[in-house]
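Lab meeting notes turned into a lecture example. A postdoc, R.K., suggested we walk through two folding results consecutively so the class can see how the record format repeats. The first protein's sequence and structure tokens come next.
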Amino acid sequence: QVRLVESGGGLVQPGGSMRLSCEASGHVGLNNAMGWYRQAPESERELVAADDRGMTTYGLSVKGRFTIYRATAEDTTVYLQMNSLTPEDTAMYYCVAGRRGTILEVSTVPYWGGGTQVTVSS
């Protein structure tokens, strides 16, 4: 089992920035592809960003504004730097982990964190 704990959410004004962190623990092993999804009220869960051994993927709505990174490809802590935030970014953000190739589709993600709320509002 892999345990994921997110931190860093909260309230931010439009145009502001915020950084989320996610620490993985337990039997991470080969489940070291990590990323972020988000879900707004009455919306489906969507991919925000993924880091699969250095290969990054971004959702279209956040490309150019959000950056996913970690210290090394094997690091079990992943960060999501979010810039130029808009009210449309308001959502619960979930950290995910899994083996290579498993975290780009909601249905194949094996491990989910409990989520951290991000609210963008003036």
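The second example is placed directly after the first for contrast:
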Amino acid sequence: QVQLVESGGGLVQAGGSLRLSCVASGRTFSSYAMAWFRQGQGKEREFVAAINWSGGSTSYTGSVKGRFTISRDNAKNTMYLQMNSLKPEDTAVYYCARSGSGRTRKMTDYDYWGPGTQVTVSS
């Protein structure tokens, strides 16, 4: 059984930075693509960024490109999301997820999810 746990969320002013972490249990972390999704209050969950198994290939949704950086450390079973130049519209619960189908943007391709961490950006 795989467990994912996010951390690093919090309250930050617009223009600030946060780094989210996602720690995975189990020995197979390095074999799978991973991603970050987010869900604002009253909104649908949306794709933020994804990374392939080695960390050599990444993708981002347009609204965070140039501001967010996804990375992973397979030796630590950990994935990260560095978020810079945060905006109030980035306020959401951020979820990490493990893909069963490579580096995709489709939620249905992700089979394990963490409980989420709240990010709040004040104006």
